[in-house]
Amino acid sequence: MSQVFGHDAHFQAIAKGLASGRLHHGWILAGPRGVGKASFAKEAARMLVDLDNRYSSMVDHQTHPDIIWVQRLPKEAPKDGEVADPDAELKRSITIDQIREVQHSLTTRPSMGPRRAVIIDAADDLERGGANALLKSLEEPPVGTYFILISHASDRLLPTIRSRCQLLRFEALSDDDMRKALMRALPDASQSEVDVLVQSGRGLPGQALSLAGMDFRTIEGIADDILRTGDPTNKLRHELAESLSVKSAQPSYEAFLRFVPVKIASVGREMASDTVITAVDAFHEADRLASRAIGLTLDKQAVLLQMGNLLASLHKRG
């Protein structure tokens, strides 16, 4: 499992279940965006269907027939002969039709071995009908089929889904594990670049990688200035809204949305006990807004201004 750092105990739980022959059929991987849940899911699926690593390339490229990935689809499907655009805008939800398609595929035996893995990325994106359809499969799973549900907010999943799965909670990585993960992912990066990404990523390698190659230090500096000054004239908030709302800034926009909840959590850890509730409320609001803004087509400037407001709300609260 050398491609994933910081989650050894969770791999041991999967390996122990496999070795005993009593591996649970459903798993929820719960934790913040960017902590490595999708990478873990892929490696856990590899353990299930390709323990001898004979089909590594197929697993890596998500083409192994016994690993079914279920994700939100593009709003506009590529035309015949066209290559799918990885940056295409996605639908709001994982639909019930997608889950029914998976269920139909589960009526046949696995193609290359005795086991099959179904990865839902992310289960939070399931529309209500899709969640109910998935529940039926979790209640009566086909023999040799294992469900891996990635969740950024597991408390929002149906209680009946949570009750039928084992929960693995993913915490932010240590700085040492962050460096290892980033150095593997970015072998040409300098030590100073890695150090900046470790600091900005705050234990979330996915977030750090989303910042690689962009001048995120300027954006982070504006966020720090809002926290420090409270931005009484709203000037800094408007600068952020104008610079990150243009189409060309989409990667920076999404990175900033993921960054703000982590930043607020970091500030909250330094706050006095009688004021920390402000940070807790701000964190939940920022996390909810980030999830909705990335998944839905919300007005970017309004989202960015609200994120700035949440940062400003912590001014002089430490």
Automatic annotation (TrEMBL):
Segment forming the signal sequence: none
PANTHER family in alphabetical order: DNA POLYMERASE III SUBUNIT DELTA, REPLICATION FACTOR C / DNA POLYMERASE III GAMMA-TAU SUBUNIT
The protein's name in its UniProt record: DNA polymerase III subunit delta
Provenance organism: Sphingorhabdus buctiana
